[in-house]
């Protein structure tokens, strides 16, 4: 069992491209909002667009920037320009890069054949959390594909775990029951169309998370 689970499952809404969607996510109860700073990604935003999204965050809502194999200089520039609270690294970045960043790091690991908790252990105490996502060839996230959530409890990775990959209002409760994670990450599962979130789906997702928490606490 993941021994770093909090009393309440946190929610990160990622892949935001519009300020209106970020406001809807916060209104629904998101603890963190994330932007994809990966050129070529389907939900990529420029720094100007990212600032418009992230500046909607009120106090105590975490601002996250997602990168894939970016240089240290590019990441530091984004942290400074966008006042990022957390950096998420979703590529092949190693512990050395994580250790050089001035804000907490969430490192993404893709669960598929060959995945092992040892992959996470290699990062020791240089990451603040491990995000487990589905392994899809050629993709680094936002695929809408789930993985076996029982892996989270079996892995006992020793850091807070965030579950991502294919979560929707219909299945997020099952993921929490199976994995008992510190947090869940959603993007495509609350979209109306690519790059646009659906306020109704956002509200339903948050309600499902809270219902799962309530059931777990009984």
Description:
The protein is of the alpha/beta class. It has one domain: Aldolase class I (TIM Barrel, Alpha-Beta Barrel), CATH 3.20.20. It has eight helices and ten strands. The longest helix has 19 residues. The two termini are 18 Å apart.
Please give the structural blueprint:
Layout: E1 10-13, H1 19-28, E2 32-36, H2 47-54, E3 62-67, H3 72-82, E4 86-89, H4 95-99, E5 105-111, H5 117-121, E6 129-134, H6 150-155, E7 161-163, H7 172-179, E8 183-186, E9 191-193, E10 196-197, H8 199-217
Parallel strand pairs: 1-2, 1-8, 2-3, 3-4, 4-5, 5-6, 6-7, 7-8
Antiparallel strand pairs: 9-10
Query: Count the helices. How many?
Result: 8
Number of strands: 10
Q: What is the CATH superfamily?
A: Aldolase class I
**Strand numbers in spatial order across the main sheet:** 1-2-3-4-5-6-7-8
Low-confidence stretches: 137-142
Helix/sheet category: alpha/beta
Mean pLDDT over all positions: 90
Distance between the termini: 18 Å
How would you describe the shape?
globular
Question: N-to-C SSE series?
Answer: EHEHEHEHEHEHEHEEEH
Q: Could you describe the largest sheet, including whether it forms a barrel?
A: 8 strands, parallel, barrel
Question: What is the domain total for the residues?
Answer: 1
| CATH C-level label | Alpha Beta
CATH topology (level 3) name:
TIM Barrel
Oligomeric assembly: single chain
The proportion of strand residues reads 15-25%
- The CATH architecture assignment turns out to be Alpha-Beta Barrel
Considering DSSP H and I runs of 4 or more, what fraction of the residues is helical? 25-40%
Give Rg in angstroms.
16 Å
């Amino acid at each position: 069992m993941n021994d770093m689970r909090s009393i309440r499952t946190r929610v990160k809404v990622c892949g935001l491209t519009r300020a209106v969607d970020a406001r809807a996510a916060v209104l629904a109860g998101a603890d963190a909002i994330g932007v994809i700073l990966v050129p070529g990604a389907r939900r990529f935003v420029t720094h100007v667009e990212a600032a418009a999204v992230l500046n909607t965050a009120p106090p105590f809502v975490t601002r996250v920037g997602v990168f894939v194999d970016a240089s240290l200089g590019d990441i530091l520039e984004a942290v400074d320009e966008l006042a990022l609270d957390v950096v998420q690294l979703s590529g092949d970045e190693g512990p050395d890069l994580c250790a050089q960043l001035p804000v907490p790091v969430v490192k993404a690991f893709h669960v598929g054949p060959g995945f092992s908790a040892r992959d996470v252990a290699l990062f020791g105490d240089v990451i603040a959390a491990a995000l487990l996502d589905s392994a899809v060839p050629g993709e680094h996230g936002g695929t809408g594909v789930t993985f076996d959530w029982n892996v989270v409890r079996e892995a006992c990775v020793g850091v807070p775990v965030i579950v991502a990959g294919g979560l929707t209002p219909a299945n997020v409760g099952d993921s929490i029951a199976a994995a008992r994670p510190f947090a869940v990450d959603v993007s495509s599962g609350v979209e109306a169309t690519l790059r646009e979130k659906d306020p109704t789906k956002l509200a339903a997702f948050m309600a499902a998370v809270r219902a799962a928490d309530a059931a777990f606490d009984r």
